[in-house]
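Example 3.2
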Amino acid sequence: MTLMRCLVRLAVVVAAAGSGNAATAACLERHPLTSHCLRSDNSSPSHDSPWAVAQRRVNSASESAKIVGGVLAEQGQDPWQVALVLKDKPTVFDGQFCGGANIGGGWVLTAAHCVDEAPASALAVYSGSTSLRGGGRLTPVERVVVHPNWDRERVRNDIALLLVQGGAAGLVGQPVEGPADIPPAMLPLLKLRTTGWGNSLRLGDDSGREPELMSVELPVVDEVACNAPPAYDGLITPQMLCAGPEDTSKSSCNGDSGGPATVEFAGLRRLVGIVSFGKAGCQGRHAYSVFTRVSAYGPWIRQVVTELPR
């Protein structure tokens, strides 16, 4: 880690502790993928990007990796799931820092907070396997496109696209279908499934990282309930989607960022969300998982994948 990055990191942790947000400070210290370190007072999170964290990752018991309350994902069940990986790490397992969804044509949809500091030359996409230990294909990233209105402070428009080298041939696995034909009124009635290699344990509970993809099904939470004072107190916008049981015994967590959230509709699984943020430690009542609502960004996605020069 450079001296400047170390000083910035220290300043963020000290500021969190000084403001009385002990949970945020602890989360930043122990699980610093701060898309999941929302302050307990429901104000916007201070961010240290997953890419920056992965750059300085040391494999240790303090960085465990599974979805909270989930089960092992079956090979082929979510073939669009990919891992974002730092190319300069010795293994895929060491370099994985976020997830993403293969949407076809060599494009991967992920969260802006995963890649807004990352040059394309530093990144690769791992596809075709539920295990970070092997069996998949590692393909360099050619281009990173972050949404032009991405707002890190308020976690708005948290969406980005990656183009891998070789286009569609660069990714293994079936692309995911979009959400275009799901009636909005139907969504709260459907079970949302999210997958990832993120933290399986809550803040303060460490047991080592795991390389296997995890899956969890979550109930969709209505925007009014998610915006209530016990939850996010006005932070949630119509471009976001909340899910999880009230006691958050199941959730996405650190390291799952950018990964897909799908529902089954008309016989197909449809991509409805991208893992965005949650509360510190991924725990507590009303600490729902928050996703970027993919349907809100259809025009932008289509514009990028059809008009951007390659």
